[in-house]
Amino acid sequence: xxxxxxxxxxxxxxxxxxxxxxxxxxxxxxxxxxxxxxxxxxxxxxxxxxxxxxxxxxxxxxxxxxxxxxxxxxxxxxxxxxxxxxxxxxxxxxxxxxxxxxxxxxxxxxxxxxxxxxxxxxxxxxxxxxxxxxxxxxxxxxxxxxxxxxxxxxxxxxxxxxxxxxxxxxxxxxxxxxxxxxxxxxxxxxxxxxxxxxxxxxxxxxxxxxxxxxxxx
Length: 217
Ligand code: SF4
What we know:
By secondary structure, the chain is mostly helical.
């Protein structure tokens, strides 16, 4: 078994299923992926609750909502002016594609890599957010990389300082079958690992479920 597969099984045995990504609709998950940048999920939940309470969590309502009003509603998520503008930028691109149906289903029925290019062309949407949208909202088989992923890989000598986002992504995608459920769970488990064991300072290697599985530690 590939070491990244073995690591997955050990993490899953230890932490159990993580049930990501919380959200009642595809749009809610997509909005959450933008709002979660540089904040924790509790703050994102408050912002999403505000959007629901104001009755604007639909493509139609969000696209006509002025950016300053949107910013006020998502204030709990932090960087609210920036995030409101990012959401508006994203909605503009989506709007061109979904105007006829007011549904994201047609948008996400497109080819994964052309969708990824479209998302990356939106100002303020980087690879991690684009891939989170694709995996969690679009149910597309693409691995999401974040700081926790990098830390875990680099501490075990699996990537170098210069490794790009796409190189790290490819490590996982080459080692694992292209399954949405697996990519979903693995990313969530790496977040748990980073928060509980593979911390930025003082990693808890002695107690870590991956201790002994991988080179370097
Ligand atoms: S063994 Fe140490 S370095 Fe490796 S994942 Fe666990 S905490 Fe991080």
